[in-house]
Amino acid sequence: MGISDLSVFQALKTKMQWHQERQQVLSENVANADTPGYIGRDLKAPTFSDSLNRSGVKPVTLAVTEPGHMHASSSRGLGDPRKVGSFEVTPDDNSVVLEEQMMKVTSNQMDYQAAATLYSRGLGMIKTAIGKS
Question: pTM of the full predicted structure?
Answer without folding.
Answer: 0.66
